[in-house]
Each structure stands twice: as C-alpha cells, then as structure tokens.
Design a protein that fits this description.
Elements lengths: L1 H14 L15 E4 L2 E11 L2 E7 L10 E8 L5 H16 L6 E7 L4 E12 L2 E17 L3 E14 L3 H21 L10
Antiparallel strand pairs: 1-2, 2-3, 3-4, 4-8, 5-6, 6-7, 7-8
C-alpha cells in the first residue's frame, strides 16, 4: 500500500510541469531560503495524505527550471527508514534504464535526518537532454496532535543539452558543497492547511 502511495506522490510531482494555477500553501511555508537565494512557492498539490509544494527563484519557471526546492509531506505513521527505502528502490529501478542514475545515502545523527543525493538523466536516443542532481533530506516530524509524518526537503539542480558536460565535470565539488548547505538549512516548521 505504501509503495502505491509513493508512486502517486511521484505522479503528482510530474503534474507540476503542467499547472499554471496560483498555488495553495497547504504547509504554511510560503518561502524557503537556501544557498543565499529566496525560493517562492510556485506550485502545490495534495492528495489524501500527500502534500507537495515546489519553490523557485524569480529567475526560474516551470517546467524548464535550473534550481528548485520542494517540500513533500507524507502524513502517515511511516518510519523514516521505510520512506527512504521506497526512494532507494525507485532509484534502483531507474538505474536499469537511466545510465547516469546514481545515488548515495548520508545519515545525520545530530538532527536525525537522512539524505539521499542522486543523479538522474533523460535522453532522446543517444543524446542527453536533461541531467538533474537532487538532494532529498528526510525527517520524521509531528503534525497536529502528535501524529507522525515524513517531511522531505528537496533541492534539484538541472542542466540541459550542451551544458550537461560542464555540469557533470563540476558535480564532484558542487555536490559536497550543496550537501553541506542543505544540512545547515533548518527544516521548515509545517502546519497542514486544508
């Protein structure tokens, strides 16, 4: 059941590229600051126990963004390990058809978060069209009357077409820098708004 629900979450994320409506702030988080940039809420969706909000700087727009922050909330009593395992299984499957797909897991015992950093790509034939580096920082949080939920703070950085090769060459240094920065970001305090 949980696996199906996470696939619904992924499907809802894909819908973000088709919506032009003004977003509803379901999580009571209108802006997020990361890497000295302010990201404003640009898209949101909810479905039963799932909430997704996507944030962009003024320089970006959907669907062809360069950098994006996302918040995902699974409002169910699921362990952080189970939530991370679902994403890892998704990435293992992706590796079968995506030659750039790769991932690593980092546990932060100080704040009890788990980070998955991963690389995904899209191609048309033998030509790479998009490469996306992602940081997904998972944390178990309390919502409402001590109900457990999973909060994911995600950062995505993309390169397109001829910019992919320089992007991949700089990824090693950039990856370590961004991992350090995302661990410095305080996880947002969310309040579910229906």
């Amino acid at each position: 059941m949980m696996k199906i629900q996470f696939f619904l979450l992924v499907a809802m994320t894909l819908l973000s590229f088709t919506s032009d409506n003004k977003p509803t702030d379901y999580l009571n988080v209108k802006t997020i600051t990361f890497d000295e940039k302010v990201y404003d809420l640009k898209w949101s969706a909810k479905n039963d126990n799932y909430y997704i909000q996507e944030y962009l700087t003024d320089n970006d727009s959907l669907p062809d963004f360069n950098e994006m922050i996302s918040l995902f909330v699974l409002n169910e009593n699921v362990s952080i390990e189970d939530a991370v395992a679902v994403k890892i299984n998704e990435l293992k499957e992706a590796k079968k058809t995506d030659p750039v797909c790769n991932y690593a897991i980092t546990r932060n015992s100080d704040d009890k978060t788990i980070l998955i950093d991963f690389l995904r790509g899209e191609a048309e034939g033998d030509y790479s069209t998009i490469v996306e580096f992602n940081l997904y920082r998972y944390k178990q949080v309390k919502i409402g009357k001590n109900k457990n939920a999973i909060l994911v703070l995600a950062f995505s950085k993309r390169a397109y077409s001829y910019k992919i090769t320089p992007f991949l060459k700089s990824l090693g240094e950039m990856r370590l820098e961004l991992i350090g920065k995302i661990f410095q970001v305080e996880m947002p305090e969310i309040k579910l708004v229906n």
